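Problem statement: downstream parser choked on a complex file, so we are re-checking the raw output for the flavin-adenine dinucleotide run. The parser issue turned out to be on our end (a line-ending mismatch), but while we're here, posting the original submission so the record is complete.
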Amino acid sequence: MTRAALADATRDGQATLWFRARLTDWIDEHLDELTPDYPDHGTTEQLLAHQRQVQRLLFDAGWMRWGWPEDVGGLGGTPLFRAVLGEELTGRGLVHSAAYSMPEVLAPAVVRFADSALAAAALPPLLRGDDLWCQGFSEPDAGSDLGSLRTTARPDGDDWVISGQKLWTSWAHHASHCIVLARTEGPESGSRGITAFFVDMGSPGLHVRPLDTMADVDEFCETFFDNVRVPTWSMLGARGQGWEVAQHILACERGPIFWQRGGWLLHHLGEVATLVEPGDHEAERLLGKAFAAVFALRARSRLTQHRFAEGNVSGPDSSVDKILIAAADQAVFDASRLILAGSVELDDTSRADRFRKEWLYSRAATIYGGTSEIQRDIIAGRVLDLPRPGR
Ligand SMILES: Cc1cc2nc3c(=O)[nH]c(=O)nc-3n(C[C@H](O)[C@H](O)[C@H](O)COP(=O)(O)OP(=O)(O)OC[C@H]3O[C@@H](n4cnc5c(N)ncnc54)[C@H](O)[C@@H]3O)c2cc1C
């Protein structure tokens, strides 16, 4: 792929078609190297090792760099390229959608808020899969009510010293860096007193304890900060700008990630459809319902992807996308479970194991990235301007 050819395609309004056509040719040529060598879901170690290999191949061939700014190691072009790349990978089951989403969750905020030298140094190893980042927002008593977080950062010479505990930190035990929200003003400062830091997970005083989940996916951790010293240049944005950084990250989660998740859901739905006996009308009904939910997500998300690509990182109306993705996720894996009834619950086959894990994980879709109750509250108050009860 050359920039000149991209410029021609862009001028003709064909940039994403041009990108997808070349990408799919390349994927077809490299399918053996891109396909996981373990059956179905795999362990977290297998899944992350494979993803690293895929990212390295994609980065070295340029694909992983398209859609990111050139001054942070990207090759430029629209962020729609990132959505297309994720869709092609998850839609063929070549990477696991949840793990693949982490760079896309956090990197846009580092590009926007980090010191330019930090962003330029940090992005290439992340995109190449050499590094993995995690998100240190939630705490034992601060999830939906993130503004009440209690982890603190106090200035000390040229450094800041972080103390506190984070919870539900996905992939922290495998991560090289964490974006940490910490309170830099007094306890009453609420969301105004929060600052974001880009923290090296190897820092002395930082400890990670993995948590078991019902989905048997080794993802979550508790992360402890015992006087962890971080340099001032690792601050994202200015002191007190952490809430804005957090909002940007939550909004970016609804960009290319939701598009690739749609590819992942269709991949599974397509597989289940091949297992339905002709004439099984109940199964056809379930499939149709799930397909409609995924279609609603993609119809909405397509608009969001284009707005994102134009630089309009979504506002409160992206809560609609979050509700739709949770509904689609659960519809697909509810349908799978009912169609594969008995097998998903009891079988020891690798396929049953995968659908079991995916069904259990889909229960979390109404929680991560902001619960569905909170999204409905945002839509009611900030999109529809409905009065709050009691007013
Ligand atoms: C799979 C997964 C991955 C995650 N990964 C990360 C991660 O990497 N990093 C990270 O920092 N966090 C992560 N989280 C945590 C996630 O952000 C929180 O779980 C979420 O914000 C909800 O917070 P909570 O669990 O404390 O629940 P709470 O906020 O305590 O909510 C409990 C229940 O009360 C409801 N509720 C709360 N407040 C209101 C209100 N005002 N109005 C109506 N209902 C309300 C909620 O909707 C929910 O049903 C992850 C969670 C999941 C499930």
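For whoever reads this later: The first strand starts at residue 133 and ends at 136.
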